[in-house]
Amino acid sequence: PHLFSTPKELDAFSQEIRLLRQLRHPNIVAFVGAGALEDAKSAYIAQEFVVGGSLGQLIVKQCMTGGGGEQVGAAATAEGAPVGPTFRRRSAGMFASFFTSQAVYQAGDAVDIMLQVARALAYLHTRSPMVLHRDVKPDNVLLGAPWPSAAAAQRRRRRLERALQQAAAAGGGG
């Protein structure tokens, strides 16, 4: 059997490689190389290694460790302790409690992540010809490490300090 069953499949693979080679953006995983294995049955595209996992993994972790809402999806022992994975169901009124002190990420982190995704998509959409991702979802958003980043935490701290200073100034300082 051949690696690509039709010339059209080979052409599509080659086009993707050409496209990936051109993309240079801090919020897009970098292209490293491409090739075929000696058995001529497998091809690969190599990209930069991203150690932080996916946004999908982060969301699941958030739901399991302090995301607010009622626990669902777990069996319980006779004493009522959950057995196996548990997830938390959120209602619209519980959104604020989703970001608790035990949370893996806070609302500001979510905003930072979405801004980075938006910047990457804006970059793709300004290419000529325009590049459409066509599969944007949490599992396809890769996060760098450490997460949350120290720089993001520092930016949030500065924003909070400015907001507190503005509130104090508006309220007469006390």
Beta strand %: 5-15%
Large-scale geometry? elongated
Order of helices and strands: HEEHEEEEHHH
Write down the Rg.
22 Å
- Percentage of residues in helical conformation: 40-55%
Q: If you average the pLDDT, what whole number results?
A: 75
Note poorly predicted spans: 68-77, 81-98
Number of discrete helical segments: 5
Main pleated-sheet profile: 2 strands, antiparallel
Number of strand segments: 6
- The largest beta-sheet arranges its strands as 1-2
Describe the protein's architecture and organization.
The protein has helices spanning 7-22, 55-65, 95-98, 107-125, 150-170; strands at residues 31-36, 43-47, 70-72, 75-76, 82-83, 87-89. Helices cover 41% and strands 12% of the residues. It is α+β, with helices and mostly antiparallel strands. It is elongated and about 70 Å long. A two-stranded antiparallel ribbon has the order 1-2. It has a two-stranded antiparallel sheet with strand order 3-6. It has a two-stranded antiparallel sheet with strand order 4-5.
SSE blueprint and pairings:
Layout: H1 7-22, E1 31-36, E2 43-47, H2 55-65, E3 70-72, E4 75-76, E5 82-83, E6 87-89, H3 95-98, H4 107-125, H5 150-170
Antiparallel strand pairs: 1-2, 3-6, 4-5
Task: Kindly list the characteristics that best describe this protein.
single chain; 174 residues; alpha+beta; two-stranded antiparallel sheet; two-stranded antiparallel ribbon; 6 strands
What would a concise description of this structure say?
This protein has 174 residues and is an alpha+beta fold. The chain is built from 5 helices and 6 strands, in the order αββαββββααα. A hairpin with a 6-residue loop joins strand 1 and strand 2.
